[in-house]
Amino acid sequence: MDIQIIPLFAAGVGFVSVLLAGYGLIGYLSGASDSARLKERVSGTAVKRSDALAAPLANAVKGAVDFFGRLGTKIGPTETEEIDKGRLRLIQAGKRKPDSYKIFQGLKGFLAVGLAGGFLAVRFLFLDDMSLGMTCFGAVLLAAAGVYGPEIWLSRKIKARKMAVSDELPDALDLLVVCVESGMGLDQAVDRVCHELRNSGPIISSEFKLLTLELRAGKSRIEALRSLAERVGLDDLNSLTSLLIQADAFGISVGRTLRVYSDAMRVKRSQRAEEKAAKMPVLLLLPLVAFILPSLFVAILGPAVIMSMDMFLQMNSH
């Protein structure tokens, strides 16, 4: 009798849980809409309901970011050289916020401790027969993954951004040549190219925008160009900035320098595309062998194998 009551009791608990969850969700949505209407009355401006609903999530994300920042301040390196190197890598990946380095270090520490602690908790709760050596090895391995995993992600982010800049740079140089040869100065040409490439080349456009802001703030052209090359970390852009600095120092025509270098960059981009196209047969070999050829063998040889099996079965029956 008691066994028959257990499913009914479980069903009742599930129904009550779903009902309470529904009431809680309705209360949360109504509270968010009421707070949005109250903000509209107080401020006199319209507040989107989606913004009011997303406010708790945004506050939670902000709290997590602040926690990572405080943690990174305590566990991060204290040497100025290491801090500058880490900040430069984040800048090259497109992360320019002042606290990005602290947040990144805090995230690494949190992942290391969290992964290792979670593994140890699972081991002592569910894996009692695991040896001490395997436990230590797994904890150290997961802690290393938490430390070096973000570094690998950051390296890939930097590499992808450099590749995007190398693809966008020839078009930017072509536009710079047109602007300079039409009578604009180099500073005005950079500003114009920045506005023209906002959609087609957002990364190089943002870098040129920052270069323009530095020039307007009073920074010399040589220092601004060197800062641009350092922020991106691309060899082609380093060579370009060196050529522009030399052209400015020796009075060489900037338009001619940009034209020669843009032609070289365009040829290099086409060669890179040809190189990728030449690698395609080798890259397609593995999926061809692993997926396509077995299917072909099954489709072609399958009927023959089935007929052979039937023939041998008939021979054995006789």
Describe this structure in words.
The chain is mainly α and 318 residues long. The protein is built from ten helices and no strands. Helix 2 packs across helix 4, helix 5 packs across helix 6 and helix 7 runs antiparallel to helix 8. The longest helix has 64 residues. The two termini are 61 Å apart. The model has no long low-confidence stretch (mean pLDDT 78).
Key attributes of the depicted protein:
318 residues; mainly alpha; 10 helices; Type II secretion system F family protein; cell membrane; membrane
Mean pLDDT score? 78
Helix content: over 70%
Characterize the main sheet: none
Strand content: under 5%
The total count of helices amounts to 10
Overall 3D shape = extended
Number of strands: 0
Are there runs of 5+ residues with pLDDT below 50, and where? Answer: none
H and E order: HHHHHHHHHH
Radius of gyration: 31 Å
What is the distance, rounded to the nearest whole angstrom, between the alpha carbons of the first and last residues? 61 Å
Q: Helices and strands: which structural class?
A: mainly alpha
In short:
Helix content is 87%, strand content 0%.
Strand-helix topology:
Layout: H1 2-43, H2 49-75, H3 80-92, H4 100-126, H5 132-181, H6 186-196, H7 202-216, H8 221-232, H9 235-250, H10 254-317
Helix pairs in contact: 2-4, 4-5, 5-6, 5-10, 6-7, 7-8, 8-9, 9-10
Main location: membrane
Keywords: Cell membrane, Membrane, Transmembrane, Transmembrane helix
Membrane topology: Multi-pass membrane protein
